[in-house]
Amino acid sequence: MDSNLIITIISGVVSLLLGLGAGKLIFSKNTAKKVEEAELEAKKIISDARSAGETLKKERMLEAKEKFVQLKAEHDKEVNEKNRRIGDSESRIKQKELVINQKTEQLEKQVRENDTIKDNLNRQIEVINHKRTELEKHQEEHIRRLEKIAGLTAEEAKSQLVESLRQEAHTQALSIQQEIIEDAKQKANKEARKIIIQTIQRTGAEQTIENTVTVFHLESDEIKGQIIGREGRNIRAIEAATGVDLVVDDTPEAIVLSSFDPLRREIARLSLQRLVADGRIHPARIEEVVEKTRKQIEEQVMEIGERTIIELGIHGLHKELVRIVGKMRFRSSYGQNLLMHSREVANLCGIMAAELGLNPKLAKRAGLLHDIGKVPDEETELSHALLGGKLAEKYGENPAVINAIAAHHDEVEMQYVISPIIQACDAISGARPGARREIMQQYIQRIKDLETLAMNYQGVEKAYAIQAGRELRVIVEADKVSDSDSEKLSFDMAQKIQTEMTYPGQIKVTVIREKRTVNVAR
């Protein structure tokens, strides 16, 4: 607040007090002293107020001067900074101008030098063109002389030379091509053997042969009579409910369950076990127990399928396919348990695919499902490979898996890389010793048929069926059969075996031709 205004207010207050005091003096003399004191106090207040106003005025002036000095210093500092920046910018601009001038001078110098070089090049080109013209004239003269001496035109000589070179190149190309093919075959065979051997060595094979009969052991022969029943009604009821033949003979404490369907044999075995334990054996009870056992087996089938896919690390399989996998446990092919065979093929496929840098999980999946067509719910005229492909397609499997299943017996074309892997692993699992059972007479007859087929060809000296009939080794007479004929002979034999014979897996035909010259030094 301004000091003059403060003084004016105080003066007004003092005057008011004095007026009030004067009025009171009219009526009372006792207050005169108080009035004087009040006047003195008012004067003192006025004096103090003036002093305070002067002091405040001086302070405000000092603050204003300080503020002005501060603002002026900041302004000077900012102006100096701007001047400095402007000076730096001018220096950079001058430096850039200097550099630009130097580059301009260099460019002008290069342009002058390029003009000089261009003139020199033009003169050199003129000289070269002149020399080329003279050379062409000399070359034409030389060609005319050569044509006169050789009696051939240039085109005729060129044609003869090209034809000669073409024939020579063709011969060399065929030789190189043959060498490349032979080298590729050797390397491919070596690598394939290595991969197959490593795959087999890394897979622990189990014995997978099963019988077509099951022996049910009894505590005593007295139970046989209960199982047979009055006039054989119980045994007929069991056979009708299970589809299994019961052979009750003189074998002590045993009944033979005979059926080619292991699932039916298992149902019959478990049903008999429950009936014998319960002791109540009659047709109604038999049907009830067989039905309960069948439901239990269905649950067990799902459990086996789920456990199998978990152990193999296969995920996302349709429930119906899981059930089919479980049913494989109770199926056999050539005496080989189907589930054990499929698991073995899946493991082989996974290892082989990993060795080849492919997807092992997809290969395992295809290997496990490759024989699902052998477990049909109803009879069909399709082969198990084609039926398996249709089932896999029906339940939304990967196209590569579908093709591998359908093509593993060459009934459809292989379209994916894993398809031949499934075929090879299926052959490995079925061909190893002890994998499948074959009647001895059939085996011997197949061996004889192979050797007889080979001996019927012209020029064949000897023929041997080796490796359990999986390879036919043929020795031919070198004087009657050439190398190219031996290749054709091998192909023809393989085609004939494929069309006329029935055999598991595949048969390799090897034709051997050699020329021996023997002399004796005496």
Provide a descriptive summary of the structure in words.
This protein is mainly alpha-helical and 522 residues long. The protein contains 15 helices and 8 strands. The protein has a 3-stranded antiparallel β-sheet with strand order 1-3-2, with helices on one face. A hairpin with a 2-residue loop joins strand 4 (332-333) and strand 5 (336-337). The longest helix has 119 residues, at 32-150. The radius of gyration is 57 Å and the shape is flat. The protein starts with a helix and ends in a 9-residue tail after the last strand. 23% of the residues are buried.
Secondary structure layout plus pairing:
Blueprint: H1 3-27, H2 32-150, H3 154-201, E1 213-217, H4 222-228, H5 233-242, E2 245-247, E3 254-258, H6 262-278, H7 283-312, H8 319-327, E4 332-333, E5 336-337, H9 338-355, H10 360-369, H11 384-394, H12 399-406, H13 418-431, H14 440-455, E6 460-466, E7 471-476, H15 483-500, E8 508-513
Parallel strand pairs: 7-8
Antiparallel strand pairs: 1-3, 2-3, 4-5, 6-7
Helix pairs in contact: 1-2, 3-9, 5-7, 6-7, 7-8, 9-10, 9-13, 10-12, 10-13, 11-12, 12-13
Give a short synopsis of this structure.
By secondary structure, the protein is mostly helical. The chain has helices at residues 3-27, 32-150, 154-201, 222-228, 233-242, 262-278, 283-312, 319-327, 338-355, 360-369, 384-394, 399-406, 418-431, 440-455, 483-500; strands at residues 213-217, 245-247, 254-258, 332-333, 336-337, 460-466, 471-476, 508-513.
